Backbone:
């Protein structure tokens, strides 16, 4: 097996871009409620099934499914916050309790997605498990549309988030609430509304990424659950306390995952193609290395301190 | 004139009760000083007024309107400003953004008009207008916290140990600024302070709390002159 760098690069661009969208959402929910959301991957799967319905059931262009996927993901995330996390938070539940609650919600969502998959295949006779929607993409200069659209979406969303958080009153209020929720309440900011909007945006981004996923990767009810490891790794690597860290983490982990597994698979004994199913080990390793060397992630590294440490070592 | 009425208040955090059957009044345009030993529940009273504690029973009324268990943002919109002891500014926002956020309930034009007014009152903030508070001194940060409270045009300001961890000179300055709020702007002030003597000297009314219960409620000068209570709880040496 020979490593095809160009093909790996294309894979990495699409995967990293979608992973970044998912990681931005995960970081946003962590920043607001301080809870790692284990259901985030399954919320993305909602988007995957919206893509399937848009193309195979309604016969529309898959990109027309982006907006409904965003709203569907957002609504599911809001439901998760309002029905499960907010009541727990009001009862002063610990982070562990809330984390377990997100796992329970993930199971619930996964069950719902399995039911939906069965319903679609039985009632409409469409393949609703292990499906690819590559054939529904458009081509631009011989390249698939998603190769162009996914990084453009990341750039557009990063700019939109930057403008929201720095140039709008509500965005600055979001940053204020993230930093100090009680103080935000005392200045008249409705912290609960900020949380609801944050969860909506986070879920929406997951839905958006999910809608594009089957254009390159296999879609199934548990696809999101498998990606969850990569999302956590990207969030931790970039820095869970910085929304822009999600972009660095998403691309770092995404590229590492694709290139490393492709490279190892291209080697001869003892490596080879048998290593491909062990791909989730790569994001786990990235997470372990980050936690050991820079527990606050890449964006949490104190560059000034690091520079002075190097200078001291050089002088010694 | 009575502005805030607290009636039979029992409050705390979770299942841990801190305040027991507290009843007192806050007079309009006066400074009420809440003093007492550490852990007596001074800060908890302010937090309860602002909806930041668990209230088990009793009530808090603002101009006769029940504000018990209202959320902090609803209370803020009724003209009460709270300056907490710690975490009273947003460290990740610039001074400009801090002031903008503190006027969150106001219209954009009102915020634009109010910022220069507040900066005129605290000129030290002009120099660090576009900086983050992490580069400012303790005194400057306290001024920012007070200016943030002023942005909302409040008629009541609750201060939780504003001079804590400040040098004696800066503490005196901060206390002077608080006095000005009452004297120049007619703002009702509720002040919780460890520095009992200085705060009682400029206060109109005093509430002494001991183990979450009211041990004294009356004119500040009376408490200052009380040899038993003063020496027992406030470290005031008897003459």
Residues:
């Amino acid at each position: 097996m020979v490593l095809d760098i160009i093909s790996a690069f294309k894979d990495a661009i699409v995967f990293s871009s979608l992973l970044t969208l998912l990681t931005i959402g995960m970081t946003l929910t962590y920043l607001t409620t301080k809870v790692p959301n284990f259901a985030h991957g399954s919320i993305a799967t909602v988007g995957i099934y919206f893509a399937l319905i848009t193309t195979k059931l309604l016969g529309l262009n898959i990109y027309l499914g982006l907006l409904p996927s965003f709203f569907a993901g957002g609504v599911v995330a809001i439901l998760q916050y309002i029905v499960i996390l907010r009541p727990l938070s009001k009862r002063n539940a610990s982070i562990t309790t809330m984390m377990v609650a997100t796992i329970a919600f993930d199971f619930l969502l996964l069950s719902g997605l399995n039911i939906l998959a069965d319903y679609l295949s039985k009632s409409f006779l469409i393949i609703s498990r292990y499906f690819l929607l590559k054939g529904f993409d458009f081509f631009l200069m011989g390249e698939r549309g998603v190769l162009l659209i996914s990084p453009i979406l990341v750039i557009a969303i990063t700019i939109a988030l930057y403008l929201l958080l720095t140039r709008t009153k509500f965005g600055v209020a979001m940053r204020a609430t993230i930093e100090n929720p009680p103080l935000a309440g005392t200045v008249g900011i409705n912290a609960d509304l900020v949380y609801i909007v944050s969860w909506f945006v986070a879920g929406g981004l997951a839905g958006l990424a999910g809608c594009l996923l089957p254009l390159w990767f296999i879609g199934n009810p548990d696809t999101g659950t498998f990606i969850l490891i990569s999302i956590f790794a990207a969030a931790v690597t970039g820095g869970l306390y910085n929304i822009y860290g999600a972009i660095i983490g998403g691309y770092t982990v995404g590229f590492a995952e694709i290139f490393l597994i492709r490279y190892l698979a291209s080697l001869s004994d003892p490596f080879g193609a048998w290593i491909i199913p062990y791909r989730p080990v790569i994001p786990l390793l990235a997470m372990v290395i980050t936690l050991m060397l820079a527990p606050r992630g890449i964006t949490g590294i104190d560059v000034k301190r690091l520079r002075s440490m190097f200078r001291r070592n050089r002088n010694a | 004139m009575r502005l805030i009425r607290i009636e039979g208040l029992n409050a705390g955090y979770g299942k841990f009760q801190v305040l027991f059957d507290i009843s007192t009044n806050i007079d309009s345009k006066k400074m009420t000083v809440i003093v007492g030993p550490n852990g007596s529940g001074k800060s908890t009273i302010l937090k309860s007024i602002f909806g930041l504690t668990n209230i088990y029973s009793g009530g808090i009324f603002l101009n006769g309107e029940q504000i018990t268990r209202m959320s902090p943002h609803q209370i803020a919109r009724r003209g009460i400003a709270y300056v907490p002891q710690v975490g009273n500014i947003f460290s990740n926002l610039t001074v400009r953004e801090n002031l903008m956020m503190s006027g969150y309930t106001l219209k954009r034009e009102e915020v634009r008009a109010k910022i220069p007014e507040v900066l005129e009152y605290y000129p030290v903030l002009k120099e660090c207008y576009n900086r983050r508070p992490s580069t400012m001194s303790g005194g400057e940060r306290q001024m920012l916290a007070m200016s943030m409270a002023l942005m909302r045009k409040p008629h009541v300001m609750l201060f939780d140990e504003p001079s804590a961890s400040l040098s004696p000179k800066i503490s005196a300055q901060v206390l002077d600024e608080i006095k000005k709020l009452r004297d120049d702007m007619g703002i009702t002030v509720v002040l919780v302070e460890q520095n009992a003597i200085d705060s009682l000297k400029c206060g109109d009314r005093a509430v002494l709390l001991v183990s979450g219960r009211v041990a004294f409620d009356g004119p500040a000068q009376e408490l200052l002159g009380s040899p038993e209570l003063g020496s027992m709880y406030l470290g005031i040496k008897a003459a």
Strands of chain B lie at 2-13, 16-27, 31-35, 54-62, 65-66, 80-83, 156-160, 188-192, 205-210, 213-219. The mean pLDDT of chain B is 88. Chain B has two domains: 1-79+154-166+174-239, 86-153.
